[in-house]
Design a protein that fits this description.
The protein is 19% helix and 28% strand. The chain is of the alpha+beta class. Strands 11-3-4-9-8-7-6-12 form an eight-stranded mixed β-sheet. A four-stranded antiparallel β-sheet has the order 5-2-1-10, with no helix packed on it. The N and C termini lie far apart (39 Å). 40% of the residues are buried. The protein binds zinc ion (ZN) (2 copies). One zinc ion (ZN) binds at residues 7-9, 11-12, 88, 90-91, 93.
Length: 187
């Protein structure tokens, strides 16, 4: 099954192949960096929930394929050593985070996935709340599913590496291991 990744203006398009489904991880991250990313792009309303959480689907990097608008792909690190975070520069749509070929997964942000009503039916409910200590607002999350979520993430990375899937990373060059666009460092 395939879900579509697209930016708001429609110039950037990618496919997310959801098979095999067991190597995916549906989570909500409350870390400060994930909160800052949509603010940086002026898209916090579209991305963050009331607790500052970002709903994310982690998948093997090779399961994402850019279809159109590669020239609009942009990358930012929110701190000098921060995780490379990816977005479509045509309309500042956040796409997700992807650390690199050594950890070949992509955490795709819910707001660029369509159809949005198929996220839960495809990946199941959110099972991991990470960095819940950084959550904001009332009725904060408890941080459930940590062990299971981390195990899933390790599984995604290992399977991705062993199968060679991770080499087909849409955001990193298989030859050089570098991001295909130079990350800007947010000031
Ligand atoms: Zn766009
Ligand atoms: Zn985070």
């Amino acid at each position: 099954m395939t879900l579509a990744i697209s930016c708001e203006c429609g110039k950037f398009k990618a496919d997310l192949d959801t098979e095999p489904l067991r190597y995916t991880n549906h989570l909500r991250c409350y870390c400060k960096d994930c909160q800052r990313f949509p603010h940086y792009l002026g898209k916090s309303d579209q991305v963050l929930d009331d607790n500052g959480g970002t709903e994310i689907v982690q998948v093997m990097a090779g399961n994402v394929r850019i279809v159109e608008g590669k020239e609009h792909l942009a990358c930012v690190r929110l701190t000098e050593k921060g995780l490379p975070r990816w977005y479509a520069s045509c309309c500042n749509t956040p796409i997700g985070n992807a650390p690199g070929l050594s950890m070949p997964f992509i955490g795709v942000i819910h707001s660029c996935l369509t159809p949005s009503n198929e996220i839960e039916s495809t990946f199941g409910p959110v099972r991991l709340e990470s960095f819940a200590g950084s959550a904001i607002g009332e009725n904060r999350p408890t941080g459930r599913g940590l062990i299971g979520g981390i195990l899933k993430m390790i599984q995604i990375i290992l399977v991705s590496k062993v199968s060679g899937h991770g080499k087909r990373h849409p955001f990193f060059s298989a030859e050089t291991g570098r991001p295909i666009v130079k990350p800007e460092i947010a000031g």
